[in-house]
Amino acid sequence: MIIGFIGTGNMGGAILGGYAASKASEGNELLAYNLNTDHSKWALERTGGRVEIAADNVDLCRRSDVVIIGVKPQVIDPVLEEITGPFKEREDRILVSMAAGISIEHLRSFLGEKAKIVRIMPNTPAMVGEAMTAVARNELVNDEEFAPIKEIFDSIGAAEEIDEALIDCVIGVSGSSPAYTYMYIQALVEAAVANGMDEQKARVFAAQAVLGAAKMVLESPESIEQLRINVCSPGGTTIEAVNKLFENGFMQNAKEGFQAAVDRSIEMTEAKK
Nearest 5°: phi and psi at 16? Predict the structure, then answer.
């Protein structure tokens, strides 16, 4: 396949770099284009020169079997207008969009009713090969076509197919949640520093604890609640911390943050109708 990346900023560039470094990319040709020439240079460096820089969006689209758009939602419409012609010229080409609040129906309104479209919602840990990516396709993308698309995102972490109706929920639970997790880690680091620990050492202790806990959730057959209970010895230190967090509404605050992200995603989608 020839896979083209329009937009190689933080997220698009992370996906491109991660995929280029994976075995899944072997045998495939990679193209990229970004109005920002610095981002194009960064894409070349990130992929070890594996990517070719296209002349423009139209050139990239005409040469690609799969086009992955990594531009921001507020500037995606002009890009869609540019590539409408190439998509209507070749109906087997597949568009992959990661723009929040931009529905498959909105994309199809530019590219035509016969357009094959996949919508994804990745997150920033793509930069270290640990992304969680939701993948939704329209009815025109068959299983044979979909498999190599999903493989791209499996290669930079984990990917799960979902119904597009769950994209807003995904934004709350994984798309935006690294930010909430960073806040938690930052709080631990600041508290550790206040208790005399070196900041860099505190970063390692806090981040490794979160990494290990996340791995336990993924690999243990026990419920998340039971995993928490297992750490809390009666009368011990952990139960004191957990009780204080419950008292201060820790879990409810996290749920409200989640919902705020979901509600904003819904608003953005509605604004494009």
Answer: -60, -50
pLDDT at residue 18, rounded to an integer? 86
What's the average model confidence in pLDDT over 22-50? 81
Q: Which pLDDT belongs to residue 50?
A: 79
> ∠ at Cα 93 (88, 99), nearest 5°?
90
The CA-atom distances, in angstroms, between 84 and each of 6, 7, 114, 136 are 14, 17, 12, 21
Burial (Cβ within 10 Å: 0-12, 13-18, ≥19) of residue 114: exposed
Which residue in 8, 15, 13, 9 sits closest to 154, CA to CA? Answer: 15
| Structure tokens, 266 | 């819904």
First vs last C-alpha separation in the chain: 33
Average model confidence (pLDDT) across the chain: 93
d(CA 245, CA 247): 5
Q: Taking residues 16-37, what's their average pLDDT?
A: 88
Domains in the chain (CATH in brackets) are 2-164 (3.40.50.720), 175-269 (1.10.3730.10)
Q: List beta partners, residue 95.
A: 67, 117
Over residues 179-198, the pLDDT tens digits come to: 999 999 999 999 999 999 99
What global pTM score does this model have? 0.90
Average pLDDT over residues 114-127: 93
Residue 107: pLDDT over 90: yes
